[in-house]
Amino acid sequence: MENILLLTDFSENSINAIEYSINLFKGDRCNFFILHVKSSTSYTTDDLMTSGNESIYTGIFKDAKNELDSIVLDLKTRFKTETFTFETIVNYDNLTDAINQVVKTKSIDLIVMGTNGITGAKEVVFGSNTINVIRTIDCPTLVVPEGFVFRKANEILLPLDVQDALSGNAFSNASKFAHKFSKKIHVLRIKPNGENSSEEKKDKEHLDYFLKNIDSEYHIINDIPMKYVVDCYIQTHKIYFMFLLVQPESLLERFFMGSPTTRISNSIRVPLLVFHS
């Protein structure tokens, strides 16, 4: 039984991420928890005044709860043959604090959220909420790009930086996901400046150990920035899913925010599942 946390701000993008996750887990027994976090900055004096005789809590949260209930009704109608359960949660808190609370109290196995990628001159690869969740929440997080239509994750891409290792809990969890959902994994050991990697000699051994029953391709890429390698590989192969194994201030920082040579210049093209070491 999987416990999956779906985040929504009721945007088209977040609803698409929910749809993607439901399709991904078809045939499984899952408990879906749909969370909407109300920020205090979104309240106005008018919001409080129009609550009338209702409690402030009821006045503020009623509309959000109704919208969540509407989402659940639609999902239950369209996926009525699935063994899914749904629970809606409205929280008034800091986003990451609210998520952490649900992760702990509901024993969440996976967080799912949408991201709009680059939509304007001031946008980075992922929005600040997405970055904060990935940075601060110690739980596997699936990020679904804007408008991505569900496709089976038959082939998965796993890019590795010089310091990343195919060992430990992060890769163990990633390999379990790969065995369950895909037929093949493409591993790219990327050395943008031609650095030597102490992990390179161990890669084949770890692949054989963790991925015994799944096909894999392994490539070493020298002297090409990660942003070009990842984008080109996705476009030239049937890649519909991607993993990242992240450690504090390692690939996560370099992949999303880091130096000009490793920063991703375009929006992520496929769903990205982040595993924390």
Number of continuous helical runs: 9
The name CATH uses for the topology of the largest domain is Rossmann fold
Strand order of the largest sheet: 3-2-1-4-5-10-9-6-7-8
**What are the low-pLDDT stretches, counting only 5+ consecutive residues below 50?**
118-125, 259-266
* Cα end-to-end separation: 23 Å
- How many individual domains? 2
Largest beta sheet, briefly? 10 strands, mixed
Instruction: Give the helix proportion (percent range).
Output: 25-40%
* Whole-number mean pLDDT: 82
The CATH homologous superfamily of the largest domain is named HUPs
Task: Give an overview in words.
This protein is of the alpha/beta class. It folds into two domains: 2-145, HUPs (Rossmann fold); 155-276, Rossmann fold, CATH 3.40.50.620. The protein has helices spanning 12-24, 45-49, 56-78, 95-105, 128-136, 168-181, 200-210, 226-236, 251-257; strands at residues 2-7, 30-38, 84-92, 110-115, 141-145, 155-160, 184-191, 215-222, 241-246, 272-276. Strands 3-2-1-4-5-10-9-6-7-8 form a ten-stranded mixed sheet, with helices on both faces. Strand 6 (155-160), helix 6 (168-181) and strand 7 (184-191) form a beta-alpha-beta unit. It is elongated. It starts with a strand and ends with a strand.
